[in-house]
Batch of 4 targets.
Target 1
Amino acid sequence: MFNYCVDPKAIEGLMWLSCYVTTAKHMSFYFSFLVVIGLLSLAAPLAMVFGFAGATASRSNFRIIRSLGKGYLAMIRGIPDIVFFLFIPIALDQAFEYLRHKVLCFDVTEPIRQGNDFVVCAAAKLPLNTAGEWVHDIYGFSLALLAFGFVFGAFAGNVLSGAMAAVPKSQIETGEAYGFSQSQIFRRILIPQMWIYALPGLSNLWMILIKATPLLFLLGIEDIVYWAKELGGIKTGVYEYPHPDWRAWYFGVLMIFYLSLTYLSQSVLDKISARLSQGQATMAGKAG
Amino acid sequence: MSSCFQTLSDYGLRSIGYGERLLPKADITLCEQFVLIGSGMIWNIYFAVLALLLGFFFATVLALGKNSNLSLFSAPCRLFIFIFRGSPLFIQFFFAYDLFVLLPRLGFDIDLGFFVVTVETRWLTKAWLGALIVLFFNTSAYAGEIFYGALRAVPSQDLESADAFGFTGIKKFRRIIWPTMLRLAWPSYTNEAIFMFHATTLVFFTGFPAWQQKGDAIYYASYFADKTFNPFVPYPIVGFYFILLTLLIIGLFSLINRRLNKHLPTNERKRLRFNKHNLIR
């Protein structure tokens, strides 16, 4: 980066450090912080969509849809989220490749599962073998994003269905008395009123989501955990910047990053909650 | 069926080092997957039960400390709770492991009077101790915050009645404050316990090595998923085991909940439900 960095072994102290923290690999490390922020900003809306669908389905009048919705919301309470993070990306990948194989290579008669192998024709591979590195990166990230959306959708669905149940029944009954249809009641009465009940749960969920982002590492994404391990490990003399085991320092930096992120979020969420409870007939509302 | 009994005796305790040494490699059967993943559950239960038992007491201390008027006590407790609740457990594992690795390899002799225990720092880099400490601190912080909230919610009339009856100090805490605090905190604490069991699945994905392939349930599940390239069998098996475990915890915690609520009139008793719209974590 700097001119004097040409021969890092000749320099010392702060100059050495300034060269060390601006290497190309460190730039990838800094970029991976943006990946975390990107994941957060995409996963949160996606989870809301999944959650809304789940919560609505669990209130459906059709039994099959209702039990599907309820099953979706219930499973996250019994099964650790890591199971889903490991399962969903590879399951989705195989499902996509299976479907593409059936459509694109219908003339191949050999079975896809051969013993311990999963064999699809070259045209069905996702991404294609000829695709560039960045396509693989985007594809991997999208699968991870879907996994996050699915898991946190189930959490959000629990919050939203709890909030929908908390809206006073008399409000719904009033709607019925005025001749609103079921969908009108849903859109005009239930949804606008549930947010205040959902807010504490959703804030909590946001904090859980922040703290789940390092799990990207498990999905094979080159995220901050990957780079911290990579950069912090012992570098012998053959490297340009030899240093002992610095992983504890790198993970210390990650700890500080996450602590500031959660601290910042908490203070914003407290402000929002204070604003929303103004004028409400609750203890918090009267105090404010 | 008899071969499945054979598998059970070969791999039933594999996760703690008994039985067959080599893991199944080819022609993996459903039975092998069930047995080995179930064997891994021993570790999940070990971590969660010990962390929760120890954490329960430490959490009470933290809650009391945070509630203290003296900042000498409250500040460190606040900081501890903030650090462990504000950062991801996953990062905590990595951070702790890398710190433990840096420690000099020493042996400390602890004289217990009747015999001497040698505590070695290298144990800290092993999952059974190092990861347990992280989980213990983590659950203490979460439960500490829950207990703190409950402590603040103990009705002031209860305290006034205690004063009126001449309860003071330890006796007031043990007989009046503590049971009420527990009763109020119990639904959230049940949540925390369930999440703790789920959190144990992270251990072997962080720095802590699964020595001689002695791992937890999800370690074996991902082993099978890698070997068979079929995720649709091992992961549902893990899910199945954890659903059973979760139901067991809910059953156990409801029994305790019933005892904590015993003195209340029946219409005021709260039945324990897995809290839907207030997942604490």
Target 2
Amino acid sequence: MSELVMQLRRHTNPAVLTASGCIVALLIAGSFYSANFLSPNYLLQQLQVASFLGIIATGAMIVILLGHIDLSVPWVVTLGGMMATAAAGWWGDLGAALAIPFGVACGALVGLINGIGTAYLRVPSMIFTLGMNAVVQGLVVVHTGGFAPQDRATEAMHDLATERTFFGLPNALLLWAVLSAAMIFLLTRTTLGRKIYAIGNREKAAYLSGINTRAVTLICFVISGAMSALAGVLLAGYATKAYQAMGDAYLLPAIAAVVLGGTNILGGKGTYAGTIVGTILITLLSSILSVMQIEEMGRQIIYGAVIIVMLLTYGRGAKTQG
Amino acid sequence: MLQADQISKSFGPVKVLDGISIALEPGRVHAVIGENGAGKSTLMRILSGYLEPSGGGLLWEGAPIRFASAFEAERHGVVLIHQEILLADDLSVAQNLFLGREIRRGLMVDDAAMDRRTRDVLAELGTAIPADSEVRRLSLADRQFVQIARALLVPNKVVIFDEPTAVLTPVETEKLFVVIRRLREVGVAVLYVSHRLPEVKAISDTVTVLRDGRHVTTAPTSDLDPIDMARLMVGRDMAKLYPARSAGGGAVVLAAEGISVPGYVEDASFKLRRGEILGFGGLVGAGRTELFEGIVGLRPSRGGLELHGKPVHFTDVRASMKAGITYLSEDRKGKGLLLDEELRENLTLAALDRFARGGVMDVPAEEEALDGAISRFDIRVGRRNLLARQLSGGNQQKLFLAKMMLLEPRIVIIDEPTRGVDIGTKQQIYSFLANLAAQGVAVVVISSEMQELIGLCHRILVMRGGRIAGEVSGDEMTEDEIVFLATGVHEIGVETAVEAARPA
């Protein structure tokens, strides 16, 4: 009997269960407010919006699993959007065709620098990525101020973010689904996934097991940068243009989504399914709050409070057990 | 003074103490001995208020008492001197002594008074540690004395020592005994926990033996010789603990010539042969671990290293692993295993690529390897999906060995192979290492347990202060000889050295 309970406990993450329960509760509570909250159209729309956050949270999670954090998210998102639209302006048709990969590549480049700073120069990731965020912000401001680049999203970006090409499902949602499947495979079935969890669990033990911990860290930061920039590309497509500070509102919700999904903020533990659930929860929460006409600052307070409460509930166990 | 009455303690389903009664009397030194896992530390922690018993209770001068916390025990005068050093490295000796109980004058901290008091206390202990020195700059032994001084600063009636001599040289041990004898003279009840039986014989009045959480016997120390104590602790004959030695001594596989690890090791040279077990002895801090960390590329090192006759220099542990050298750290919980992952993930981590095709894990192959490891290393688990954290120390060590052996190394360096494991597992680990050597693998065993080195190794190199002080083999492999090389002082010399150190 107790054996069975133990088994259940091991395989079902309490945080994922709690977060799923919260989603259901939010929908039910919302449906009292307005029946629209349960309409398929509203739900699909929420999932579409969630996919932007979900893609950012994917990158955030992989870095958090290592025991690091990427605080350069806001301006890498902006950079991704800006560079993709600018590429279309600079290089005409060719630029328009390459806009999306170029935007993503710029984010990956920032991720590469983050990775070098963290893994090879051994600067704490919290400081290094925060610094990079400021550097990228400065570069973007110079770029938009001096060169008057194109900021209108290309056709392809717009389609990717807003169209419903297959089965009436939003393209952004499908993209998120594909990335999610890839990430689950990566984390659960590949050697890289094993190494990520091993490093997050105990970097010294991982290193002494012959794992190239620096290279793995570098790869994770590159993925994180690329994901943020991809989300920026989509956001620019969604809003039809790229604009400054478009990523500012995403850092806290992305971390909140990861933590709500039960990933240990100190690394080593967490399932990607949790991050999906956490993303949906944050998105729904945000939507319902805005329907209830709670201002952005109110939402920020709630995100912050959610992160702190989740850390108090789930985040502290690992290190105190020693 | 303080009595334990039929104390039991369980952690979850595991019963670690079962109806233990002991009585500490003023002016007596009571030793508690037992193997790792016998329940010594649990008993100590209950007596000093760190844990509460699940059954039975404590008596204070005959009346039942309950310590809700260590502070409460301390208020009654019960102090525990921890085995681990729990001091703030960056504070001075005096600041550490008075940490949390500073002497004040008004709102200010009275440094002068604390320094004065610290000097007095340290002088009483017979050490010459400067009161204003940062703890970081002290030797391990000095830190141990600071810790003892700190504990004795509070009014005490019962003092509990937990393996106090683990990091002490014989001279320092003798100094500690002077302190303990003085405590006894002033009527303090002393509980002395150690696995060094000759010490127990020398210092204690009464001995209690624990085995598997049960009380075996309590007897006057004068009635027991160390060998009797060992037999009572183990519950069977000790003779079979070590396997037969193989021939040893094949071709030289690893030759170190003048290896230096800056800050730790100077000019160390040795040769390691195929099929032999080479022991490295010495005191904690002699540089044994650092020497090999330097050799495998975990620390910067200088000097000549030849592997199978070819010069090599490793700057990264992955390079030495690839070359067939496997290093098993003494810190298996911090550097060996991933405590929060399951057995399977732990087992294959070092040889991950062997269990993957194109970067994708082959889980059935891993499961098969786990089957193999469980039976080959006799890892005793009820079910396979346990976390490494949930294994006993012995099973963790076996899992760690199994993991590193998947690399099929030619040279195995194992640091403190039996620390924190029970005697049954010790025996298994010894016979495994002996087999490994018999198959032609070169094995280096770094150990602080002299008996283990003597019983297991073909040759023993002893380090002192970062240098190799000498080699013993064959009949020369005795504790006396190793202690002499490790400390530079003969046993007979210890007495005179202590005499000389004592104030006239």
Target 3
Amino acid sequence: MSTEISVTVNGTEHTRSVEPRLLLAHFLRDVLDLTGTHVGCDTSQCGACTVHLNEEAVKSCTVFAVQANGAEVTTIEGLADGDSYTNVQQGFWDEHGLQCGFCTPGMIMVSEALLKQNPDPSESEIRAGIAGNYCRCTGYQNIVNAIGAAAKAGS
Amino acid sequence: MAVTTFGESVKRTEDPRLITGRGKYVDDVRLTGMAHIAFVRSPYGHANIKSVDTSAAMDSPGVIAVFTGVDLQEELGGLPVGWMLPDLKQPAHPPLAFETVRYTGDAVAVVVADTAYQAQDGAALVDVDYEVLPAVVNAELATKDGVPLLHKEAPNNLGFDWEVGGGDYDEAIKDPDVIIVKERIVNQRLIPNSMETRGVVADYDAGKGNLTLYTSTQIPHLVKLLFSLVTGWPEQKVRVIAPDVGGGFGSKLYLYAEEVVAGIVAKHVQRPVKWIESRSEAYVSTAHGRDHICDVEIAGKKDGEIVGIKVDLYANLGAYISTFAPLIPTYLFGLMLGGVYKMPNIDCKVHGVFTNTTPVDAYRGAGRPEAAYLVERMVSRFAQEIGRDPIVVRRKNMLQAHKNGRAVTTGVMYDSGDYKGNLNKALEIFDYKAFRAEQRAARRDGKLLGVGIAAYIEICGMAPSAVASSLGAGAGLWESSNVRVHPTGKATIYIGTSPHGQGHETTMAQLVSSELGIPIEDIEVLHGDTDMGQFGTGTFGSRSIAVGGAALFNSLQKVKAKTHRLASHLLEADPKFVTFSNGTFAVEDIADKTLTIQEVAGQAYAAANLPPGMEPGLEEVSFFDPQNFAWPNGTHLCVVEVDQDTGKVEVQRYVAVDDFGNVLNPMIVDGMTHGGIAQGVGQALSEAAVYTDDGQLLSGSLMDYALPSADMFPMLELDRTVSPSPSNPIGVKGAGEAGTIAASPAVMNAVIDAIAHLGVKHMDMPATSEKVWRAIQGAKEARRAARAVARGGS
């Protein structure tokens, strides 16, 4: 049994037949080959799969692909314009906000959404804002610095 | 075009691909015709397999094949043990169980299907008939008579008994002035949780009989070697590729069952196969860490002099011996029991015990955090007992600074360090006196603040191979490098280490750039593909720069020597008068006689005018085997506030002063220190693997296992002292594990300090709100009872 859906991902509309149980994360990775979105858990805790669904940050392992029918999705691949990074991406690079890089796409996507809601967050607001995303390498310090740097660059 | 230098915070060259979603991890590998596999795992801690019915799974849509342990018994062999101990019991460890399962998660069958979802559907339909057996999960209990036995060749479930020591503890405590403080200390089991789980893609080339394994590992070369030894597959026909690897922390440091099974299954089905571990699966199938039950006593005198430590440890091995498991609770633990102190008498006994749990092996720090936690907890406990400040007691017992080797009680030789220098610097940054005043004032306001200190040292830079071999290592532990300077003067490096977050593509290129004067953009660092270069040992034990960086440095010296000779020849100058700096050879006092290293490289390949006897080309290899380990050390201080009403612990301040020797890239070293501290804080405050008595893992998902999140930390304050290591030519010590080693005792000492005045002396990790609240209530209750007795007696 499969259902036809149309999802606009990073500005391009894709129409595909999918199983109803297919997760959005797997739709992006395995159907559209957008492997920048990572899957780090199976209980919606880690946030590595965070993408924007109609401009809101969601964990794409907790959304069925069919629920994204007609929606606009932005993934990590949709942020940079060639080699021109967003302030958040640049902040992660400049402040050493990543080590193994596996949580990074989700962290960047949640940070983008955070700064959209709150362009000038305090340190504790940043920490609370990314508390739904796990990183095991950085101890979060340089991620917090990266988001702070991005906020500053955007102001 | 930038030439970088040693000691510069060069931004990472890995990052552009990783911040744009263009990294390539195992799950991103897609091969034509690729099928997917899923494992059927035991839901019981201990059971006999009576039968396995695969018929329903075979009928499930998309399923291509199902293999049971019996089907593959001959081909899979047994998983290896990479470290020997005297009288070590080595029960067979089949990658797929075929008679008995010994832990929840033990794999019994594998399903191959067109898609990952279909493979999981099929796995759910494999019907295994189990005869459930009694289980045991506690390492001390498992050694008692009458408890379930895991392996018939290991009576009382003992895998090994091991001991180490120095001096004579029993004699030393005969002194009537000696005070002994005893505790039972549990270092809880942890689950590593690298953000990328494990995964394998196996690609069999039927035409050539070659197998390629893409696997998320820290040791691609050792996986190749061990896979070949276990399966009999010729080593030259196995290629192992570790692509981008999303963290490891020790948990990707072994040959795992799934790697072996995937390789063999790919050959059977004649298609590439992929297995990606789910997070919940990782909780039971990837090695765990720690899990020590320890009776410890520390002995000393009223003036604060410590005379010794005695340890009797039950170390949980889990159900089988994982690759490096025998090393972790023995040498990496016992040799560190002197800490940074004189500690003249040490008596350590370790019992390695089989239980019905996931195998236990190295997890960040691996043995050294357990030792540092014991020592640092007990030194503070001793200070509390004799009523002295923990700083004063530490200072009184600390080793003097040294630059080139200091033998200690356990027989090892610390390389260099200024332990009191670390302490003094940390105290200066922290302002200890001011804190104590603030703590007293806060207490009057009903606010509980505590400061914790941990001074540590760790054995890193694995290792001198001859020493490691004499202690039981099954492989050499040197490291390798290959430097190929191309005719255009650009360079490709192949390193034997295998980074998974440490940034070697940057730091190794930085070292090349600083030595050869080649711009960093012109240097490509390759790693983690066994067909690309020479054998390497891998990345673990904070060894990559101390051993691998040193191997690279040595190759670079060979390149420098050859180019210097060639440049002198081309410049028609006596080599004595030819200098080299910033990538340019020049003749002293002759301004226009210069050649760049790029020009010299071109000439090395053109080979039109070489000095007599010089071979063409410009490529050098080095294998570096150090004479001693490297010994990072430091002092960490932590402040916590404990909420009296809820028991919640909040880390308010954290100061770390570390001696990593020379530091190649301070930005990267700081980043690793942050991450290490976070993992140590996680152990101290929230993380714990919990089993039921019959072997069910209760903390079996990220929902149940409390990984630290960003809102648990203040900004960490880092500083350093520098005592270059004499163990390698670049004087580095390694920085990967230090934070984890120091943080758990620092935090726990702070928690106890905050509530010690209520009568609390010790508490096991993690210091959860409930545990702290109960300790406070218990202490208050005890004081009330004591007062009542006193009143009643008067």
Target 4
Amino acid sequence: MLRASWKSLLGRKLRLLLSTFAIVLGVAFVAGTLVFTDTLSKSFDAIFASSVGDVVVTRDGSQTDDGSQTTRTVPASLVGRLAGAQGAARADGNVSSSGLFVVDRHGKLVGGNGPPGIAVNHNTAPAGHGVEGLAIVRGHAPTGAGEVAIDARTARTAGYRIGDTVSLVGSGSRASLHPTLVGLADFRDGGSTNGATITIFDPRTAQDLFLQGKDAFTDVWVTAKPGVSQAELRDQVRALLPAGYTAVTGDQAADDAASGVLEAIKFISTFLLIFAGISLVVGSFLIVNTFSILVAQRSRELALLRALGASRRQVTRSVLFEATVLGTLGATLGLGLGVLLAIGIRYLFSRFGLDLSGQPLVFQPSTAVVCYVVGIVVTVVAAYLPARRAARIAPVSALRDDVAMPASALHRRLVAGMVMMLAGAGAMAAGLLTDVPRPGYWVGGGILVALLGAAAASPVVGRPFLAAAAAAYTRLFGSVGRLAGQNALRNPRRTAATASALMIGLALVTTMATVGASSKASVDKAIADNFQGDLVVSNVVGERFSSSVGDRVDRLDGVAAVTRIRSGVATIDGHGQGVMAVDPAHLDSSVRVDMVQGATSDLRDGTVLVAEKTATKRHLEVGDTVRMTMPERRRNYRVAAITADNNPLLYYPYVLTLGSLERAGFQPADQQLIVDADPGVSVAQLKKQVDRVTADLPTVTVKDQDGLAAEQRGQFDQLLYLIYALLGMALVIALLGVVNTLALSVIERTREVGMLRAIGVSRRQLRTMVRLESVVISVLGALLGVGMGVVFGVALMGALRGEGLEVTVVPAGQLAVVVLVSGLLGVLAAVFPARRAARLDVLRAIATQ
Amino acid sequence: MTEQTTTRRAAARTVALTKTYGSGDAKVVALDEVDVELYAGEFTAVMGPSGSGKSTLMHCCAALDTATSGQVFIGDTELTRLKDKELTRLRRDAIGFVFQSFNLVPTLTAEENIQLPLSIAGRKPEKDWYDTVIETVSLGDRLDHRPNQLSGGQQQRVAVARALASRPSIVFADEPTGNLDSRSGAEVLSLLRRSVDEFGQTIVMVTHDPVAAAFTDRVLFLADGKVVDEMRSPDRETVLERMTRMDARQLEAVAGDGAL
């Protein structure tokens, strides 16, 4: 029996290859994601291992939850005391800041928008376990305010050589710096910056630049004497520390830092694995279909096996055996392709500034295990239904001329499909409208179940379309059209299953297109409604920039007012929460803030504005107090007024004054400036002037209302394109499904094709016939997908209405293009099967039984 | 039987038609310089034991297979010079087919199947002729049935109608009764016979059934790729006797080979 299955597998190499493709792509995506994330985490581990000392001492509250720096520092006097700790070889103070970027020779930011720009002071302290940290490898260490060292890779990318004047921009007290490059730094003991730029100053200069000139440090490294463990040294150091300071071992600090970063980038792997999942779901459709067709074609052979005494179980098993072989093969190829894909993803991320080229790919054994399990399980599960159907073939069929496969009634599938769609809609509604835990899973699961339901019901739902298409074809293409239309109708399950694979990908594309178009329209509307200022100055990275920019803009002629917007992080009720700060004096003129209670002018130092939703959730009213824990201060802020939720410029629900935020320990750097022009001054004129102020700050841009809207839309577009690219994968698999179904159909109808040729159908007409069938399948899939996607998209937007996304737009033009392109893809999918059909040798085709 | 004219016109003929498969030791000569004329308005049977080349002869004459050497004419058209496109057109317009296993398109109704070659060619059926054909196959109210709703005999009658509908100059039938019981077979053969007698249709039929051969005007006997005999106005007994003799000779040949 096993032998028979094996033989039948080998006898169908081409079909094998086609159906393996789906598994290969799905597994490749899983493998690529795993390899990439392992590589990513390995590389961050390496970075953090070489960027901590044996023991790291910090002041409590020196860093906020989002990693941004506060004004809490370690005084220099403590360093000397720590050096005297028992078991300590030395102690070194570090000044570090993120937010200082290197500008290359052409005025562009090195690394683009994304990787951090880290600035540190120079010292020779070894990292934990005696690993040499960042060291000057060429030139000399910087001394004085006019000198800087840069990591070698950044210098190379930016085109700077020792002796050049380097251009730096940042959020420190000075907006831009132009020191001379005197040294290149690198990790001698291995390690990479992952695309981050590192600038090194002498300690005094670093303190001036980043710590407002205090003789202090952001942290202190204490190095252990030989034979002293990190834990022992930590305990000794702790004994010396006054209250309010923390000492941790380097291993601990590295783990904490790495896990923080890995937590932050975990969404990348989650995101990628979701798409791997989508590919596999789509791929399993292809497998179900392929096996159904293969079983149908072999029905006589299987019946013969039954007639010769094989049990039902043996028949099922033989089909499942084939599936296992196929799954194994697919997983193997997928693994190989996955490694290539990981390289591709790595390249893609390097384009966004996360450069991992210093880290060889990490291939964990668990990756292989996961891939084989996924590949085999998906294939076997998908093949199970066809396998069971194969076992139901009656032995007597072996003697019959045309064997009809036993089939379940279509109306049962319709009912099952409808039930699933309702269940999916219910789960979506639960996720969107109620307070279930993990709403994302509910919505995602709901969409998946609804799509599977639609796939189950599609043979019935799609029938009117297929019939209409057949009629239209007959009218347009005569009998060739009629044949094509009838072929599509011939096996509605197969046609619909093939179309469904396409439906899934296109439904998600349509959902994203609808959400994207609606979000963009909402943003446009919100900005038009709420932004009353004339210009907005902001940092492309969302980084803070020096407050000196605002000072200079304020002094320009024609500027009526500058509203500064800053932000920080507070702990409220034990949770980290972003808070904003504004200057209430000018707020009303630049931003239209709808008030629920009170007025923006009620905002004073020590009070807070709260957004309506948050206020409702926390039962806050004007006069109540909110307790916030911030780096320098824990205190109650009185609620001065309640704002409406609809303002996109107020992106955090709590708004303080600039003074409150600064006193709470946040550096006085701006996130945005809103500039109002004097009456009679043209915005274009003003923009030119402001542009001049920010000319040497490539990270800071000046935008008018249209520009602001365009920028916000651009962010959506970037995300959308990324999602489309990933969904493209699912579409490719679906398209392969169409190719596969058509190719197998042609093989299945070999004799019929031969007969058509014999009675005078030309090769061209045959090709047209196959092509038309392909187009019907594709367009059916597109219509189903677009239909489902619009429903999903509108439902999502309905649920998001409360989040300030008020406009729902169905991008009809775009969706029409999707359907049209699907038709064209159908033509493309038919190329190979059509050629195959046209090339069939008439005689052999007729002779085939 | 109708009067035979002394000067017969050939609807199809072959000149030194040779067909070989394989090469070297594995070379098989299916047709060995066959010269044959298939006369217009006649019902011709081609008979012979398995491997005699009868199917190959038909396939070559019907533009389904290409000759290794020699010539094939349908009317005045020489087939071996034609390209695939022209052969397709020839099959569509000048040749009709009836297959052993019916080969109807399962998705089309009986009537649509009958009209298929015409509509593929983009031609309208000639009303009178079409009605005559429909009437002759006597399917009655089953014209809008799908093939799987028809009996074998009915399906084959549809296939015959399909072959006749475009008024081809010659119809080839490949063991048309091979899959039918004797009664259905006789119905199909009568239908073929009538189309020769009443409409002057030329039909060439490959068969190994002496009963079927008895319906024809002329039987060509093939053996080892050559035409070895010919019989006019055959009846079942003479054909049977002739076949038996050929089988015996073949047996002797095999026995002789074995003795070597």
